[in-house]
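Record type: monomer structure entry
Structure origin: computed from sequence
Chain ID: A
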Amino acid sequence: MTPLINFVEFFIAAIESDDFEFAKKMILEDYAPVLKRDSSLVEKIDKVCVKAFNGKSITPPNPMQQMMSSMFGMGKK
């Protein structure tokens, strides 16, 4: 089985079990070399994570966006 197909199976299992930390570790550590084949993969996977894990993102928040959100009261609490 190819590493990318293996990743998809683990990612689906993480979503089904609602285990964000497992999904994040798998994406950012275990399968990072596989996902770097296409620069848009991590971005697309992050969108899936945000929807599947109630807004949790695998990418660190942009400090400038956080500051602007808190200044203008747009931050989620």
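Annotation 1: Residues 48 and 57 are 9 Å apart (CA to CA).
Annotation 2: The helical segments are 3-16, 20-30, 32-35, 40-52, 63-71.
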